[in-house]
């Protein structure tokens, strides 16, 4: 069974660009290895991440994130079973958004996804859009 978790968190104020680069590299490698798709966005000392994949692997990944000292005040916004992945076709699965060009590409992808009129996908899309626009 597939599952998605979407969470937001505050970053530890001691997080540096090097820490973020390490985090991005580890997230891409781990999520790729575990066939987890989604997106990770960092903005204004906050993270938003969407994880999609096998239920057990998504839950294990989220538990590791909760224990990561780079995150504070983790708030799980969505945690539910899904029929299909939202981000599977976006940029080869899992993407870290860390520059304006990638942010623009993500926004265009979200606009395209809206055409599918999937209620859960539109909930996730709305949260991601609110996060990147504010």
UniProtKB/TrEMBL annotation:
User: What GO molecular function annotations does the UniProt record carry, in alphabetical order?
Assistant: blue light photoreceptor activity; FAD binding
Q: Provide an example Pfam family for this protein.
A: BLUF
**What is the top-level taxon of the source organism?**
Bacteria
Q: PROSITE patterns annotated for this entry?
A: BLUF
Q: Which residues form the BLUF domain?
A: 2-93
Could you identify this protein by its name?
BLUF domain-containing protein
Q: Which organism is it from?
A: Pseudotamlana carrageenivorans
Q: What is the lineage of its organism?
A: Bacteria, Pseudomonadati, Bacteroidota, Flavobacteriia, Flavobacteriales
């Amino acid at each position: 069974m597939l599952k998605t978790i979407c969470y937001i968190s505050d970053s530890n104020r001691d997080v540096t660009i090097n820490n973020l680069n390490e985090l991005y590299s580890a997230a891409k490698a781990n999520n790729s290895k575990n066939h987890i798709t989604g997106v990770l966005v960092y903005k204004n000392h906050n993270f938003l991440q969407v994880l999609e994949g096998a239920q057990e692997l998504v839950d294990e990944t989220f538990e590791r994130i909760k224990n990561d000292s780079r995150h504070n005040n983790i708030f799980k916004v969505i945690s539910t079973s899904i029929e299909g992945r939202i981000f599977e076709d976006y940029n080869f699965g899992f993407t870290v958004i860390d520059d304006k060009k990638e942010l623009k590409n993500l926004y265009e992808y979200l606009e395209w996804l809206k055409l599918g009129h999937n209620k859960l996908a539109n909930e996730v899309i709305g949260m991601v859009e609110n996060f990147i626009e504010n």
